Amino acid sequence: MTLPPLEYSPLADPVRFLAGALEIHSPSGQERLVAQYLVRGMKALGMEAWVDEADNARGVWGRGPLQVALVGHIDTVPGEVPVRVEDGKLFGRGAVDAKGPFVTFVLAAAGLPEELKDVFTLHLVGATEEEAPSSKGARFVADKIKPSFAIIGEPSGWEGITLGYKGRLLVRVRREKDNFHSAHHEPNAAEELIDYFNSIRAWTQGFNTGMRAFDQVQYSLRDFKVHPVDTRQRAELFFDLRLPPRLPPEEAIRHLLAYAPPTLELDFSGREVPYQGPKDTPLTRAMRVGIRKVGGRPVFKLKTGTCDMNVLAPHWPVPMVAYGPGDSTLDHTPVEHVLLEEFEKGVAALRAALEHLARAPGGAA
């Protein structure tokens, strides 16, 4: 695919700019073309911009001492949603998760008053492989930016401010044993894995008793395979756990190993630490001001998923929230779309929040 020429200002036609990003297919690992498109847009808006070694779309606005990171991912899950505008909605894969939030960042930054360039340095990162366990883009910039504040681009609804995301642990379990006749009473390899998964399910149900959703462990069986039998039986299952702040990955691993008989082989990956930030910081106060200025009623949220906030929070011990227009229940669905009015309000609210942060970074709302 060849990039079309950018013959307009993204600020003058923001919907067209976002639609152009949605039209570029960019599942995890294939983001370079959309990164180039977004860089072209940031350059047209007067920013220094480039595609870095991780294929991130990078941009910088301003030259001031107040460092703010705006990180939103530009990869998507597989599957295309035809890009179109219908009934005030822009459809397309990534409209809410999360090209829409990142384009919101770009447009909000570009419309700030010029005098704030001496106050701010805004680091825009359109990150790669967030939808994959690698989180390649976020990990690449983790030690390259030293922000005072960070905003992660994820759909919160334009009036929502997300304070936290659950952590994650991916678990692969294997069992291999000598084959035997099916008339024997001994459980086969697949049955042993099923018994183990049922024991983990029972553990999580007990762990979750009386807890709100954000404080519960969630489990999801992702794959189960029984390999053709010769002289050996081989079976494999793959599941993930979503972890609340009271259960970091290493503690979860301790429980998983305790329930596993020594005949099972366990591998762990995707270890993301849960994160929940405070409600009252200069950043949350600025976000509330910005949302109210556009006529909204700010609401704090906690999400049961995982995002680049989990990756970056251990590296950036600074006030951090996630923000972006869009309904997160539409993530990964065949009808993914963002309301155009919400997209426009999200841009305006974030711009007002950034301006407040620049003018009164320690002030109260």
Automatic annotation (TrEMBL):
It catalyses: [amino-group carrier protein]-C-terminal-gamma-(L-lysyl)-L-glutamate + H2O = [amino-group carrier protein]-C-terminal-L-glutamate + L-lysine. One of its GO terms (biological process) is lysine biosynthetic process via aminoadipic acid. Its cofactor is Zn(2+); Co(2+). The keyword Metal-binding applies. One of its GO terms (molecular function) is hydrolase activity, acting on carbon-nitrogen (but not peptide) bonds, in linear amides. It is an enzyme of class 3 (hydrolase). Keywords: Amino-acid biosynthesis, Cobalt, Cytoplasm, Hydrolase, Lysine biosynthesis, Metal-binding, Zinc. Belongs to the peptidase M20A family. LysK subfamily. HAMAP family: LysK. This is [LysW]-lysine hydrolase. It comes from Oceanithermus profundus (strain DSM 14977 / NBRC 100410 / VKM B-2274 / 506). The lineage of its organism: Bacteria, Thermotogati, Deinococcota, Deinococci, Thermales. The gene is lysK.
